[in-house]
Structure prediction request, 155 residues.
Amino acid sequence: ALYEAHLGKNANENCYCSPYTLLRLLADLTGAPDKILYLDADVMANGDVSSLYDINVSGCCYAAARDYYGKFLIHPRYINAGVLLLNLKKIRQTRLFERARELLRSKKLPFADQSALIRASKRGDKKLISQRFNDQKRLYKKEFPYSLYLVAVKI
Prediction:
């Protein structure tokens, strides 16, 4: 019901990815805790990295690592939205996800959810974190196929 009410029939519904990838932009409308860790389904852990969840996001809406390819091809501060540490309290206050959903409804975007989040972000909304938390650079190397990190959410 949330999807249909806030994102149904949006301009990006038939883009390269599943509409399910847009669901993260509805988190502010749920009863989720004030701080959550969002991980894409294809994220794999390479050890205990509880230090990711412990990053302080009290002064921003979210923390994310730069996108390895996007930082060269699109913008030096372009982030990958597959690993996001979200401060939902601040996101609700600033209406960040509301702005992102409006962009999705009104404009066809190159990378749907990721582009909407980046374009809706204002100065101070995001905190760049170490590339080690979302390392795509070595994604295709045989000796180290995945170096993406995962952490359990503390409740």
User: Anything to note?
Assistant: The first strand starts at residue 35 and ends at 39. The longest helix spans residues 96-106. The helical segments are 2-6, 70-73, 88-94, 96-106, 112-120.
